[in-house]
């Protein structure tokens, strides 16, 4: 079992991120992991908190992977001074220097009213960039930090299209970024940007561990709004996990067996057929609703493992 210590939360505040759930997941991981593969790394909440000798991160989102490459290649000091320069040049709020009152805002409404037009200027400039260089990914991170609920969403034409959010590059997110960068740089992960189906597993041997946290078939998130995760992808992933199992490679799959009254029957049947072990995690099971009639809103969050 991996030991308990403080969790580093992703500085992307990633939708569907496992930061809150990770304390329950970590004890279920193998004791010793030589090579850790996170096939759907998203905000990297899992890998950044997992002890291994080598790390492989993958995600289908190109800007996300480009951002991590930039995090790896550029020093922390340079990143922070570039972010501060962007914030100054666009005249965005800086709550590390001034109070909300200074910006004629209050904490509950946040800084959206002050930042709206400035954020739209960054977004327009970002969407007009043709070269995906360091500056592109730095602007992208600023869009996440100043954007709505820190989410990432692009339209069909590849244009970032979320509105401004309530917060800025405040002390809390700076602290998260700094802690994350330090670990990421130490880990020196191999980072790839491919569809999970095209991922080359041939280099993996029996002290590897493959973690999968795909979009959930029965729940929606911004990265799955265009219905990119369907039964087809679900079957393909389960097939891949079966192939790993046949090669005696360990895997763990995060998912929900039921969510808001819906059931993932396909996943349930597959788990039972292969006798994989299902760990039920109590995410969302607050005392207030567990014993009430509100069961329909509960999620059966699980970690399915083959070891
Ligand atoms: C639930 S999120 C992962 C969150 C992550 N575990 C964390 O804690 O931050 C699922 C991720 O799968 C990625 N994804 C969706 N389809 C994919 C595919 N076909 N191949 C690889 N990654 C994919 C999405 O971009 C998204 O980042």
Write the layout of secondary structure elements.
Layout (H helix, E strand, L loop, with lengths): L21 H4 L9 E4 L15 E5 L3 H12 L2 H14 L22 H17 L5 H13 L24 H17 L2 E3 L15 E5 L18 H16 L3 E10 L2 E2 L1 H10 L2 E5 L5 H4 L8 E7 L2
Parallel strand pairs: 1-2, 1-4, 2-3, 4-5
Antiparallel strand pairs: 5-6, 5-8, 7-8
Helix pairs in contact: 2-5, 4-5, 7-8
The structure holds S-adenosylmethionine (SAM).
S-adenosylmethionine binds next to loops.
Structural class: alpha/beta
SSE arrangement, N to C: HEEHHHHHEEHEEHEHE
Shape: globular
CATH class of the largest domain: Alpha Beta
If you consult CATH, what is the topology of the largest domain? Rossmann fold
Strand content: 5-15%
Fourth-level CATH superfamily of the largest domain: Vaccinia Virus protein VP39
Radius of gyration: 20 Å
- What ligands does this structure carry? S-adenosylmethionine
Number of domains: 2
For the secondary structure, the number of strands is 8
The residue fraction in helices comes out at: 25-40%
Largest sheet: 8 strands, mixed
- Average predicted confidence as pLDDT: 92
If helices are DSSP runs of H or I spanning 4 or more residues, what is the number of helices?
9
What CATH architecture of the largest domain would you give? 3-Layer(aba) Sandwich
Extract low-pLDDT stretches: 285-292
What distance separates the N and C termini?
12 Å
